[in-house]
Amino acid sequence: MAKTETPDIIYTIVDEAPELASASLLPIIRSFAGAADINVETRNISVAARILSAFPDFLTEAQRISDDLAELGQLVKTPEANVIKLPNISASVPQLVAAIKELQGQGYALPDYPEDPQSDAEKDVRKRYDAIKGSAVNPVLREGNSDRRAAKAVKEYAKANPHSMGDWTAQSKTHVASMSGNDFYANETSATITAAQAGGAKITFTGADGTESVLKDGLSYDEGTVVDATFMSTAALRDFIKAEIASMEPGVLFSVHLKATMMKVSDPIIFGHFVSVYLEDFLAKHGAAVEALGWNPNSGIGDLDARIADNAEMKADLAAALAGKPPLYMVNSDTGITNLHVSSDVIIDASMPAVIRAGGIGWGPDGKAADTKCCIPDNCYAGVYDETINYFKENGKLDVTTCGAVSNVGLMAQKAEEYGSHPTTFEAPAKGTIRVVLASGEVLHSHEVEAGDIWRSATAKKAPILDWIKLGIERTKATGKAAFWLDANRAHDAQMIQYVTPALKEAGIDIPIMAPREATRFTLEVMTKGEDCVTITGNVLRDYLTDLFPILELGTSAKMLSIVKLMNGGGLFETGAGGSAPKHVQQLMEQNHLRWDSLGEFCALGESFNFLAQAKGKKAAAVFGAAIEEATQKVLMNGNSPERKVGQNDNRTSHYWFARYWAESLAAQGEDAALAAHFGPIAEALAAGESKILAELQGAEGNAVDLGGYYHGDADKTAKVMRPSATLNAIIG
Q1: How far apart (Å, rounded) are the C-alpha atoms in residues 671 and 77?
Q2: What sign does the dihedral 508-510-515-516 (CA atoms) show?
Q3: On the CB side of 195, how many CA atoms lie within 13 Å of its CA?
Q4: pLDDT tens-digit readout, 181-218
Q5: Number of CB atoms found within 10 A of residue 181's CB
Q6: pTM score of the predicted model
C-alpha cells in the first residue's frame, strides 16, 4: 500500500510469531477498516529490515529499502501518531549473525558481522550492526511513558478460567542469590544536572600510566536530567559465582537470570563469566585451543559445543566438566539446552516468573523438576524476585480466582534509564579511572576500575520524569492503591525522589514511596486481598514487572493492554510483553500449528480505533473500537483462543472467530447504519461458512511448512500458510 501523508493507523511489521500472525490478521483489519475509509498502513521494523536499511551501499537499487524505524521515530513526536507496535526481536549477536547469513543466502551482498574489527571499513560495518542489536527499536518509538494493565475482559476471564499454579511450601529450597557488594547497586553515583552544568559531556578512561582516551564523546545533558554512572567488579562477580557453585545443596539446580537482549553490553559479559567459571575445569585444559577456534564464553556453551563438534576428546572432556558441576536449570530439557547455552535464552523477566508460577520449580538435565538457585548478581532489582519467593513460601501460591489486578506506570520516554541499550556501557580496557566529564571540565562521576570491570551510565530527562509522575497520579486516582518503587538508599532513586516528593505535595495526594523489596510485598499483599494496585516504576522494573505480575495473574504477559501516551499527543499501542515467541515459530514450521495468541493485538487495535475517534473525530472508529471489545470478550468466553496442540484452535482459527464476532457486532449496532448494512452480509457469510472455513484452516495441520526464511520469509509462501481458507479469503477480500 502506498504511504500517505498522515496514515490513520500504522501497523508494524516485526519478527517471528507476531509477524506470522499478522499475515492472517492484518488482511482482516484492513478489509474492515476500509469500509469506513480508515487506512491502515505498515512500516517494517523487523531485524531483517533494519539490517537491509543500514547497508544500502552494499545492495542493488532494487534491494534497497527505506529506514522505516527512523521514519516512525519522527512520527511518534507528532500529535498525528497512531502506531500499533508488535513485539520485535531484540537481537543478540547470535541472532544478528543468523539473520545476516540468511539474507546473504537470499542474494543480499551484506558484509559479515566483524567480531574483532581492525580496519576502518570493518569498524564502520560493526558500528552499523551494533546499532541494530539489543533493544534498538523501543527507545526510538517510546516518546511517552507506559501504562500497562489487563483489559477488564481479560482479567475476568482469568478469574473464571484459572491457569495452573505450582504449590509453594516453606520447605522449598528455591532462592535468589546476589552479590554481597561491588555490584552496580553498590557502586552507583547519580547527579541532577544544574543550569550551570548543562551542555556537552564525554566519558573518558585514564589508564594507570596517565594516558587518557575518550570512550564516548558528543554527549549532551539538559538541565534537570538525572545522570547515573556505576560499575560491577568482575573479580567480585567471579568470586560470587564460585561461592554459589560451591554452596549448592543436593537436588537443587544452578541458574543465572539476566537480560542479555536488552542489556546488550553488560549482561552478555556477565553471562560469559558464569560460563567460564562453570567450565573452569574444561578451560584449564583446553582454554587456548578453544580460543584458537574463535570461541568467546559470552557466546555460551552451545557455541562451544558446535565449534568442538569434530573433536572427540574435547567433547568428552566438556561432558565430564558439566557432569562434575551442579546440575543446570534447563531452558529445554528435551533438547539439552541449558541455562548457559546461549545468552539470548537467559531472559530474567520471562524465566523468573516461570519459576515462581511453577512453585519454585525448574527442569533439570534429567528432565525432572527440582528447586532452583536463581543467581541474579546485581542488587538493583534482585530483591523483587527474592521477596516474591519469600512471600509465597510464607503464604502459599496465589489464588488467581480472587486476586486483584496489578498494573504498571513505567518511566521510559526519551530513552529514560536505558541501561545497556545505548553506547554508554563499557568493559574497562585496563586498570584505571572512568569519568563523566562535562564541557566545563567538571568531573560529574568518577570510578576506579580494574581490567574487565563493567561500567555503565544512563540518563532520565526532566520532562519525561514529570510526565511519568503525572501519569502515575492519574492511574492511582483511577485505581485506588499504588506505590512509587524507589529506594532512598540507591543513588539514582534518591535523585528521583527529589522530583516525586514535591510533585505529590503539589497534587495533594499521598502515594507511598518504597524500595523495590518493600514495594513488592506491599503489592502482593494488596492483590492477595482482591484489590487492584498500580506499580509506578522506572524503565527496567517496568520491563520486569509487566511480565512478573501478568504471568502470575493471567498465566501470560502477552495479554496486557499496553498504552504509551506519547508526550506530544500521539498514541503508541503495544500488543503486550510476550516477546516474539521463537518456539511458536518452530512448532508452526514443523507441525503447521501456530499457538501465538493475538489477544494483545485485539486489545491494542481497539484502543487504536478509540484514539483515532478522539484525535481525528472519526465517529466510525469509535464504533469499530466498541465492536472490537465485544468481539474480544466473545473470543475469550467462547473458548476460541489458540491452544497448544495440532487439531486444537490455533492463531488462524482464533482470527476467524474474531472476524466473525467483530462483523456480527458491527451489524447489530445502531450507531452507524451504513456500517451495519455493510457488515450484515459479511457476518451472515462468516456464520454460514463456519464448518467449511474451519476445515480449510485446519486441513493442513500436522505437516511441515516452508516459509521461505526465518528472519526474512517469503511473503507469498507465508500468506499461503497463514491464509489457507479460500472461503474466508473470498469473504474478507
Answers
A1: 33
A2: negative
A3: 0
A4: 999 999 999 999 999 999 999 999 999 999 999 999 99
A5: 12
A6: 0.82
